[in-house]
Amino acid sequence: MDESDLRGDLAELPCFNLYLGWRRVQAFYKHFLGEGLNPQRVYVLELLLEHRELGVTQLARALDLDVATMSGLLSRMESEGLVDRPRAKGDRRAVAVKLTRRGRATAKRTEAAVAEADAELTGALDPSDVAALARLVERLGELRR
């Protein structure tokens, strides 16, 4: 029995197909980045490389994660020496997330790999399909709000 027969009615569900698409994206990242870096970690590194310092809530919003999930992700990244979370100046309750020296080096190293993975992934599609996909995903994201 091949995959399409095995999946049966699931293959008709848009959410299942989005799930399969996401799994393929993760496989691309794993191929280009190796073990230990997943898309969420890479996106946190990229955001901090661009903005230098962001709050936990800002990072969570940017990646459409809840604050608890982002806090757990940052704890793991901090234990690996990728980020630092000192208290924000002026508000002892707030945490300002910054890249460590190791995190900055990792972010710069992964930047090219992410661009290469994205180019290969989208290179298999017509530019109008890439634009349509972006619009559809955006519309799906708006349904939840």
UniProtKB/TrEMBL annotation:
Residues 1-142 form the HTH marR-type domain. SUPFAM superfamilies: Winged helix' DNA-binding domain. This is HTH-type transcriptional regulator MgrA. Keywords: DNA-binding, Transcription, Transcription regulation. One of its GO terms (biological process) is response to stress. It comes from Engelhardtia mirabilis. Coiled coil: none annotated. The gene is mgrA_2. The keyword Transmembrane does not apply. GO terms for molecular function: DNA binding; DNA-binding transcription factor activity. The keyword S-adenosyl-L-methionine does not apply. InterPro entries: HTH_MarR-typ, MarR/SlyA-like, Tscrpt_reg_MarR-type_CS, WH-like_DNA-bd_sf, WH_DNA-bd_sf.
